[in-house]
C-alpha cells in the first residue's frame, strides 16, 4: 500500500473540516451484530415501479451519453411545471433551473456561487450538519443560531439579532420541514422571516427536500414570497424513495443561476441519464406517489411518539419529514453521545446523537421512522428495556 510522499502537503482547510457527525456515529455502531439502525434518513420503501421502469428503459435505449450540463430540457420543464404548482413561481427551464447530483450538490454549488471570503452564512440549528462545513469549503464564515428555546424554529427576532451582531451575513439557510426535528413553519412564520430577509438585503437558501412529507399541514415555500432572493433546493430522494438515484435540483433567478450552473458544471459536468429519465417519469406521472409514503410515515410517527411518551422520553411532534427528536433521560444530562452509545451497545438500537446537528441538539437524539414497522416495534421494545434497566 502506497504512503504519501513526506514532501507533499494537502489542504489545511479540508483537514480542519469535520466529517458528518451523523455518518461518523452510524459507522461506529453499524458493525454491532443485530443492531436496528434508525440513524440515517433513508426511506425503507422502494422507488415506485413506473419510475424504475423509466430508468431501465433509458439504459436499454442506450441513453448513455453526456446530457446537457444543466440537465435534460425535458426534465427541467417538468421541474418548472411542478414548481409552478408548488410555489406559484414560473421558473424558466432554460435559464433558472439546474439538475444536480442530489440536493447535497445543489447546496455546494449554491454556497460556492454566492460567497466571497469574509461573507457569513446564518444557519438555524439543530439542523442537517452539511451546511456549515460546505460554507467553510466555500471560503465563507458562518454563524449558528440556536433555536432550541423557540420550539426549534428560527424567529424573526433571533434572525434580526444575528444580523445586527454579524453585519457580514449574506445569506440565511432554511431547511423545513427540518431535519432533525421535523418541525414545519406556518405561513405567518415564513412571512415574518421573509420580511427580515428582504429588509436586510439577504439571500435565502431554502432546502425544501421534505416538502411533500407533511402531516396535517400544507407546506408553504418562502420562495413564493421573495423569489428574487430565494435559491430553492429540492429533489426526489425523499418524495419518491430515490436516495440512490442522486437526483436534486436548484432554481433561482437567472443571474445567480448562471453562476450556480458554472459551479455545477465544474463539479460534476452533468447528472446521470438514467436518473434523469426516472425523474421525468416521477414528475410527469408520479406526483401522487408521495401520498403513499406520507400515509405510512404518519402512522409510524404516531406510533413512535406514543411509545416514547409512555417511556418518559418527550419529543417534539414532527409535522413533516420522518424524524423524531427526543429528549434523553435526565441522568445523562446533555450527554447524548453517551446515551446513544449505551443504547447501541447494550440493546442494539442505533439512533443519532442530537449534538451532531449543532447547538441546541445537545441532550436530544434523532430517530428515523423511515424504517419497517417490524423494526420500529422491536426498537421501541429494546429502548423501553434499556430505560427500565438503566434506572
UniProtKB/TrEMBL annotation:
Cofactor: pyridoxal 5'-phosphate
PANTHER family hit by this protein: AMINOTRANSFERASE, ASPARTATE AMINOTRANSFERASE
Family to which the UniProt record says this protein belongs: Belongs to the class-I pyridoxal-phosphate-dependent aminotransferase family.
One GO MF term attached to the UniProt entry: transaminase activity
Keyword set, alphabetical order: Aminotransferase, Pyridoxal phosphate, Transferase
GO BP term, pick one: amino acid metabolic process
InterPro entries per UniProt: Aminotransferase_I/II_large (IPR004839), AspAT/PAT-like (IPR050596), NHTrfase_class1_PyrdxlP-BS (IPR004838), PyrdxlP-dep_Trfase (IPR015424), PyrdxlP-dep_Trfase_major (IPR015421), PyrdxlP-dep_Trfase_small (IPR015422)
Enzyme class: transferase
Key word Transferase present: yes
Protein name: Aminotransferase
Organism: Lactobacillus ultunensis DSM 16047
Gene: aspC
Amino acid at each position: 500500500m502506497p504512503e504519501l510522499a513526506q514532501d507533499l502537503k494537502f489542504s489545511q482547510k479540508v483537514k480542519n473540516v469535520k466529517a458528518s457527525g451523523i455518518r461518523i456515529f452510524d459507522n461506529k455502531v453499524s458493525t454491532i451484530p443485530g443492531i436496528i439502525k434508525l440513524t440515517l434518513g433513508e426511506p425503507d420503501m422502494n422507488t415506485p415501479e413506473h419510475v424504475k421502469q423509466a430508468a431501465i428503459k433509458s439504459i436499454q435505449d442506450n441513453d448513455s451519453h453526456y446530457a446537457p450540463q444543466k440537465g435534460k430540457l425535458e426534465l427541467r420543464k417538468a421541474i418548472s411545471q411542478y414548481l409552478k404548482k408548488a410555489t406559484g413561481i414560473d421558473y424558466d427551464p432554460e435559464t433558472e433551473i439546474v439538475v444536480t447530483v442530489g440536493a447535497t450538490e445543489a447546496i455546494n454549488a449554491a454556497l460556492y456561487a454566492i460567497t466571497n471570503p469574509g461573507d457569513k452564512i446564518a444557519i438555524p440549528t439543530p439542523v442537517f450538519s452539511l451546511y456549515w462545513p460546505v460554507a467553510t469549503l466555500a471560503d465563507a464564515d458562518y454563524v449558528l443560531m440556536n433555536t432550541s428555546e423557540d420550539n426549534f424554529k428560527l424567529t424573526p427576532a433571533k434572525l434580526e439579532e444575528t444580523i445586527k451582531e454579524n453585519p457580514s451575513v449574506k445569506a440565511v439557510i432554511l431547511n423545513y420541514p427540518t431535519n432533525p426535528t421535523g418541525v414545519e413553519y406556518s405561513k405567518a412564520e415564513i412571512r415574518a422571516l421573509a420580511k427580515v430577509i428582504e429588509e436586510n438585503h439577504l439571500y435565502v437558501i431554502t432546502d425544501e427536500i421534505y416538502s411533500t412529507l407533511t402531516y396535517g399541514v400544507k407546506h408553504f415555500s418562502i420562495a413564493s414570497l421573495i423569489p428574487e432572493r430565494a435559491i430553492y433546493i429540492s429533489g426526489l430522494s425523499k418524495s419518491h424513495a430515490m436516495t440512490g438515484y442522486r437526483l436534486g435540483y436548484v432554481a433561482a433567478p437567472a443571474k445567480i443561476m448562471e453562476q450556480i450552473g458554472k459551479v455545477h458544471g465544474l463539479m460534476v459536468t452533468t447528472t446521470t441519464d438514467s436518473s434523469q429519465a426516472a425523474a421525468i417519469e416521477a414528475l410527469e406521472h408520479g406526483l401522487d406517489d408521495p401520498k403513499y409514503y406520507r400515509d405510512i410515515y404518519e402512522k409510524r410517527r404516531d406510533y413512535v411518539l406514543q411509545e416514547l411518551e409512555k417511556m418518559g422520553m418527550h419529543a417534539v411532534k414532527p409535522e413533516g419529514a420522518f424524524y423524531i427528536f427526543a429528549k434523553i433521560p435526565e441522568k445523562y444530562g446533555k450527554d447524548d453521545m453517551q446515551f446513544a452509545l449505551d443504547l447501541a451497545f447494550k440493546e442494539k438500537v442505533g439512533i443519532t446523537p442530537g449534538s451532531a446537528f449543532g447547538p441546541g441538539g445537545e441532550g436530544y437524539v434523532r430517530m428515523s421512522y423511515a424504517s419497517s414497522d417490524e423494526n420500529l416495534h422491536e426498537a421501541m421494545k429494546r429502548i423501553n428495556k434499556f430505560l427500565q434497566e438503566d434506572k
